[in-house]
Specification:
Mean pLDDT: 93
Bound molecules: arginine
Helix content: 55-70%
Radius of gyration: 30 Å
Number of helices: 25
């Protein structure tokens, strides 16, 4: 690699040299150099003269002119152009682009520099609650976390991935209760996982039933309150003397109130459905009557487990491997592995000591019998130990943080967890600072909710959250249809054996699922749709994998030994504008990766890959490859295809997505 820098990095270095003597600290100014939005402004654009002029109290245009005069960049770019109040536009030289591209032919890293000062990252992701089936929400954490680990490692950081599974919570109280009251011993012997899942669901449903029943009067009262306040709003709106502004405000308020009422009514309807179903079924209504105190009983089982009860511990040890095994199967299928899986139970014994420590150091205090940490600038305290002696999720997280700091000494810990836990993480991080962990970056890499096409959290018809396993199966089943359809439609007849079709469908289906998730800005909610996800066109995994296979197909069709061609070296020449555009895009790969890591947003990479494939499509339409006008141009274009394919494969790989040679 030339100087171990990306194109942008190299441009920045030249500007840095030009700025020396003008300002002391250049970083903030160098950040103002970026890819141009439009061809009119060249390839790269430096907007730093304006900011610098403010600092120097000079005219922006003069500052820009001075920078240009100092800039030594003639080997990379045409003479810089000054535009507007002080923009500096750069157009890179074709021979420079070609030189950089030729350097990629033998560069495994495809131009991505290795970081200068590697750091240690702990990435906390996936973290499902054992025993409960993994659902679609967990896929986001899993897929985003995995992509971040791969990308951080690729640039040279030391990464420790740790799956903080929930293996110690109430769900075990539920399983213990279910095991004692509802187990079918034969079924358990034959398929423990399925039977445990079944008794878990029975207990869950009975708990839901009793909760729903107890909460029914309050729900109804709430709806009545909402109705009457809507009445009130309507009456006020009917007042003819109302001015336009108040009318506007009231209308908005009315809309909100109506939406909230509709939501409450939907909730009531689903609660009533549950009550109706249970009561109409003699077996369920019998159970419901016989287990009226189930909520309390489940808590008692959990407390016994946490208190060290022999029998509950023995059963917990018996259950756990079954659930773990189930999880492992899904991870294998997703191609995901963790360095550590230290679940909540791992920290259990440290909780009393941690609590004592917090009290002794005066960081926590007793309030209403509970041990709490109070914060100056957060709305709620963090409860460490409840009145009844029970520890909480937060307590475990604090112990986990301390353990990681002591054992791994990371520079950063990333928590890939959904946005609803943001208060929890604010508290956790504030508590960590109080404990004296000042030098570590703590970041909640939060993400939005996966929605169904109705805009509400994604659920099955029965109202259950959708299990991850069935999601994968469905994606692969649909991918198989697409792959078969594609293959059957090939002009020379089908190419893939049934085995190959199956393998390709698995790769395409799972790839599409991952890509759909990763291509969304993680902060937003997104609507899950199999059709959109598997579409052959647009920013989808299927499209990207197809783009890769299409490139590989060029070599197959032309019987090109691309590896040999690559070895012959330095043969890329950029003559056509579309070749140049493609070259620029290929060379932007390191910038995309930098953007991903700037704020831990993998969609920066999917967007880049999508731009790259579009660029490639245009190039491929405009520039014949196998039928190129001369042998030299043919070689050059084949090599351009090759680098494009390698960048796509590498990019997808960083996202945890595999590629196939044919599809
Ligand atoms: N098990 C938790 C859940 O499913 C997520 C845990 C995330 N990691 C953490 N360190 N809190 O909601």
């Amino acid at each position: 690699m030339l100087g171990g820098k990306s194109v942008l990095g190299e441009i920045r270095a030249r500007f840095q040299a030009a700025l020396s003597g003008l300002v002391d600290s250049t970083v903030e100014y160098l950040d103002l150099i970026h890819r141009s939005q439009s061809q009119r402004f060249g390839d790269y654009q430096a907007d730093l003269a304006m900011a610098l002029a403010k600092h120097l109290r000079r005219k922006p245009r003069d500052v820009a002119a001075e920078i240009v005069a100092r800039l030594e960049i003639a080997d990379l770019a045409e003479p810089p152009e000054l535009a507007g109040p002080g923009f500096i536009n750069l157009r890179l030289r074709e021979d420079y682009l070609a030189r950089r591209l030729n350097a990629l032919l033998h560069d495994e890293r495809l131009g991505v520099p290795v970081i200068e000062s590697p750091q240690t990252f702990v990435v906390d992701y996936s973290a499902p609650n054992v025993a409960k089936p993994m659902h679609v929400g967990h896929i986001r954490s899993t897929v985003i976390g995995d992509a971040l680990c791969r990308t951080l490692r690729f640039v040279g950081h030391r990464v420790i991935s740790d799956n903080h599974i929930g293996d110690w919570g109430t769900q075990f109280g539920m399983m213990l209760y279910g095991y004692r009251h509802f187990l079918d011993a034969d079924a358990y012997r034959q398929n423990p996982v399925a039977e445990l899942a079944r008794v878990y669901r029975v207990v869950r449903r009975l708990m839901d039933y009793h909760e729903a029943k107890a909460g029914l009067p309050e729900r109804k009262a709430e709806i009545a309150r909402r109705r009457s306040s809507i009445e009130g709003l309507r009456e006020r709106l009917a007042d003819p003397t109302l001015d336009a502004k108040s009318k506007d405000k009231l209308t908005k308020e009315l809309r909100r109130a109506e939406a909230a009422l509709a939501e409450a009514e939907r909730d009531l309807a689903s609660v009533e459905t549950l009550l109706g179903e249970v009561e109409a079924d003699p077996r369920w209504s019998g159970w419901a009557a016989a287990h009226a105190g189930i909520g309390k009983a489940v808590l008692a089982e959990t407390a016994k487990l946490h208190g060290g009860d022999e029998e509950n511990l023995r059963l917990w040890r018996e259950f756990l491997p079954h659930s773990r095994h189930e999880m492992e199967r899904i991870y294998r299928r997703l191609g995901i592995r963790f360095d550590y899986t230290l679940g909540e139970s791992f920290y259990h014994e440290q909780l009393p000591g941690l609590t004592e420590d917090l009290l002794r150091r005066g960081l926590a205090r007793v309030s209403d019998g509970a041990v709490c940490i109070f914060f100056d600038d957060l709305p709620a305290p963090m409860i460490i130990r409840k009145q009844d002696g029970a520890f909480l999720y937060a307590t475990t997280d604090l112990a986990t943080l301390r353990w990681r700091m002591e054992n791994w000494r990371p520079n950063a810990i990333l928590y890939v967890v959904d946005h609803r836990q943001s208060l929890h993480f604010c508290q956790l991080f504030a508590a960590a600072r109080m404990l004296g962990y000042q030098d570590v970056t703590l970041q909640h890499v939060s993400f939005g909710t996966v929605l169904g096409e109705d805009g509400r959290p994604f659920r099955t018809r029965a109202g259950d959250t959708v299990g991850l396993e069935s999601l994968l199966d469905e994606a692969v089943r649909r991918a198989a249809e697409i792959v078969a359809g594609n293959d059957d439609a090939k002009p020379q007849g089908p190419e893939l054996s049934p085995d190959e079709r199956r393998r390709v469908a698995e790769v395409v289906g799972i790839g599409a699922l991952k890509y759909a998730d990763l291509s969304q800005n993680r902060s937003s909610d997104y609507v899950f749709s199999y059709d959109k996800m598997l579409a052959m066109n647009g920013n989808t995994g299927t499209y990207m994998q197809y783009a890769y296979a299409r490139i590989r197909n060029i070599f197959a069709k032309g019987e090109v030994d691309i590896d040999a061609l690559r070895l012959a070296g330095d043969q890329i020449v950029l003559a056509h504008p579309e070749e140049r555009a493609l070259a620029l895009e290929i060379l932007r790969f390191p910038e995309a990766i930098e953007l991903v890591l700037e704020d831990y947003r993998p969609h920066q990479l999917t967007s880049y890959l999508f731009d790259l494939s579009n660029c490639f499509s245009t190039f491929y339409q405009e520039c014949p490859v196998l039928q190129a006008p001369s042998a030299e141009v043919r070689t050059s274009r084949l090599l351009l295809c090759d680098v494009t394919g390698r960048v796509i494969r590498c990019g997808l790989h960083l996202l945890g997505i595999e590629t196939v040679e044919r599809m």
